[in-house]
Amino acid sequence: MRDDTHFRQFVVPRATGHLYEPLGTAAVVEQGPAGVRLHVGAATVEIAALAPDLFRVGLFADGRPVAYASEAIAQTVWHAGPVAVERQDSAVHVRTSAARALVQLDPLRLCFEDAAGRRFAEDDPELGMGLLPLAPRGSRLVDPLGPPTRVYKRRPPTERYFGCGERTGGLEKTDSHQVFWNTDPPVEHTASLNNLYVSIPFLLALDRGAAWGLFLDNPGRVEFDLAREHPGRAWFGADCGDLVYYVFAGPTPAAVLDRYTELTGRTPLPPLWALGNHQSRWGYKTADEVRAIAREFRARDLPCDALYLDIDYMDGYRVFTWDRERFPDPAGLIAELAAQGFHVVTIVDPGVKVDEGYAVYREGRDADLYCKTFLGAEYHNVVWPGTCAFPDFTNPRARDWWGEQHRALLDAGVAGIWCDMDEPTVFIPTPATLPPDVAHPGGGTPRLHAQVHNLYGLLMARATREGLARLRPDRRPFVITRSGYAGLQRDALHWTGDNSSWWEHVWMSMPQLQNLGLSGLAWVGTDIGGYAGHATGELLTRWVELGIFQPFCRNHAAWNTRPQEPWAFGEPYEGHIRKLLQLRQRLIPYLYSLFDECHRTGAPILRPLLFAYPDDATTYNADDEFLLGDALLVAPIARPGVEHRVVYLPRGAWFHYWSGQRFDGPAHVLARAPLGEPAIYLRANHPLPLWPAMRHVAERPPDPLSLLLFPAAGEGATSLYEDAGDGYEHERGAYARRRLACATTATTVTVTLDAQEGAYQPPRTQVELLLRGLPTRPRAVRLDGAPADAWTWDAAILRLTLPASPRAQRIAIELDHSANQA
Ligand code: MIG
Fold first, then answer.
1. Pocket of ligand 1 (CB under 6 A)
2. What is the 193 CA–ligand 1 centroid distance (Å)?
3. CA distances from 628 to 138, 495, 659 (A)
4. Is 423 among the residues known to form the active site?
5. At what angle do helices 537-547 and 503-518 cross, to 10 degrees?
6. Tens digits of per-residue pLDDT, 743-762?
7. What does the pLDDT look like over 570-618, one tens digit per residue?
C-alpha cells in the first residue's frame, strides 16, 4: 500500500503512520429485495446476493457514490432466486437458497455460511473492514483517490490459498503476500519477484475439501496478505478507490470457477488453427528469413500452424506499418505462407511514435485519444519507436479507433494480433510504467493512471479483439496479450512473458499456468524453450514435452539467444520434438472439446489436480504435474540428466500412455520418462478422442477419429465437441457435441457414444475405437446389439471400426471371464 500519496503535488510532505481504522457501528439505511445498504460514519456499505452462491460487498468511503461499473465485469444483471433479507436486533441476514450473508451491525462484521452451515470469508472479529487514513485528521493532505481500504478475514488453520493470477513460485499461496500491479519485470523471473504482467485479484480458498472464492475488483494497486502477517488472518486491500469484492460459496473449485467466469466472462471458442503448434522468434527480420523457417518446418515434417512477426516487420517500430525493404510484399508473403498452412500473427505495441509525418499518430492526436499529463499536455515517453504517445484505452472512442487501425494488417492477410508492452511499459526512467498522475480522459469519465493501471493491457486487448471482430466478422479473433486484468479471458489469450531458458522455468510454468487457470484465464502458455538465455537440446525437448499440453503452444525466444527452432539442436532432439508435436496435433479434438467445456463452465483446460480432487490434500502441493481435462495426467521432467521422477496419482485407475501399465491411486509411483517420452497417464474409462497426426490443422484428414480407451472396473466419460473450426455457425446450431462414456464390469466393457447434440456433420465416415489394457482377447464384440466383425486384436490392442453416425452407438465388449482381471 502506498506510504503516503501518489500525488506529491497535493501534499505537504510529512511522515505519517498508517493506522488502520476498522469500521464501527453500522446503521441500516435501506433494505432491498436482495441486499442491504448501511451507513458507517461517512462510509456506505452494501451487501447483496447476486446468485444463490454469489454475494457482492461494496465499501464506499468518505461519501463516495455507490458504483460497481467495471471493465472486468461481463454480467451485470443477476437473478439470485428467492432471497430473504431478515432484520434482527443487531444483525441482518441475506439468505439465498444456497447460502447466507450474516451482517453483524455493531461493530460491522460480515460472515458467510452455506446451507450445510459451513462458515467462510468471515471477517476478523477485531479488524473487519476499514480504512487506512493517509494522514492524521486535520492535516493538509489532499488526495483525489481517497484512503486505502481493506478487509481482514479470519483464517481457520485448515484453510489453504490458490489462484491469484500470474505468479512465480509454487501453486499454493498460503503464507504469502501478493501484490496486484502489472509490471514488465526484469527478465529473470525468480521467486523473489512478486507481481508480473497480469493482475487477477482472485483467490480460491480450500478448507478441508470445500472451496470458496474472493474477487476484489479494483484495477488500481491491490494487495492480498494470505496469512503472511498473521497465521490467523488474511487481508484484502485496495490502494485507492472503493473496496468492492465478490464472495463465491463454491463448494467445489468447479462451482467457484463457473460463477467467477459468469461474472467476469468466458473464454470464447478459439479458431481451430490456434490449437496447433506456433513458432516465433524476435529476430525473423526479413520476408526471406520467414520463408526459410516455413520451408524448414514443411521439409522436416514438423507440425506448425502459425508464424509470428516480432517488432522488426514495422517501419521504424511505427505500429500498423510495414518495413517495405525487409517485407516488400506482405500480402504476397502471407498468401504464400497460407498456401503452406501457416497463419501469420503480427506484434503491435501501444506506444504510437510522435511523428508529424505518421498518419496514425496525427489521427490519434487530432481526435484527442491519448493519455495526458496532469497539466493537460499529451503524455510522452520513450519505447522502441522513440518518443511515443499512449492511447487512452479507457476511452471507448480510442478503442474503436485502435481497432480500426488493424485494417492495415488484416488487409495484408494477417491472421492474429499479438499485443505486447501493454502494462504499459516505458523506457524512462528505467523500464517502468506511466506515472500515477497521468490522466486517462476516458472520453468524459476521467481517471488517473493509478486508478486504472491494471486495465491498460485488458483494454488494449479488448480494442484489438473488437476491431478484428468488426473488420472480419466471419472469423473468430485471435488476440494474444502480455498484460491484462480479471476478465481478460473474454478478450485474449495470454502468454507469460519473458521467462528464461532455465530448468527452474520449466518447473515454474506448471504452477504458473495452473494458477492462471484457477483465476479464470485458461487459454495460456509460456514461451516454450525459454525466452531469455540459451536453450539446449535437452532443455528444449523437455519443455516441448510439457508445452504440447499447454492450451497455447508456442516456441519463442529473444534476439540475442541461441536459435531454438525444433531442428536447432539436431538429433536426437529433432526426432523427439517431431513425435511430440505430432502428439499435440493428434490431441486437438480433445483440446478443442476442453475449450468447449471451458467456454461453457470456466473450467481450466490445463488444471491442477486439486481442481478435480479437492478433498485430497496431497494434491495441494502436487504442482509439478497437472491434468489436461479429466482424462490425462501429465508429469513432466524439469531437471537435466534425469529419466525418472515421482508422480502422484490420485484415486482411481491410471494407465501409463507409452507402456500401458496400470496403476491404482492414490499412490506415489516412480515413472521412467526417457527423453521424448513424458510421463502421461490416462484415466480409466475416459475415452480420449484423437486425430491422425498432420502438419497443420487445415490438413485435417477426415478419417478416422480414434477413441483411445483403457477400461478398468468402474465408469467414466469425456465429451467430444466439433464444429467448423472458425466463424459463428456453431452459435446457430452447427456444432456436434456428444458424451463418450465407458462402464466396465468383470465381464463387459460397454462404450456408449451418446447421440450428438447439434447439427454439424463432422467430415468423416469412420470412428475407430482403440481399447488397450485388456488382459486377453475379448470373447465377442457387439455394436448396438448385433455381433460386430470389424475388429482386430493385435499386440493387446482391440481395434474396432464403426461407421460415423450422429445417433447413439453402443459397443459391448465381452471379456473372457476366467482370464479377466479388470
Ligand atoms: O522490450 O518485441 O515479451 O516476447 O519478443 C522487449 C520484442 C519487447 C517483449 C516481449 C517479447 C518480444 C519482445 N518484447
1. 282, 310-311, 347, 420-421, 482, 497-498, 556
2. 19
3. 58, 18, 19
4. yes
5. 10
6. 999 999 999 999 999 999 99
7. 999 999 999 999 999 999 999 999 999 999 999 999 999 999 999 999 9
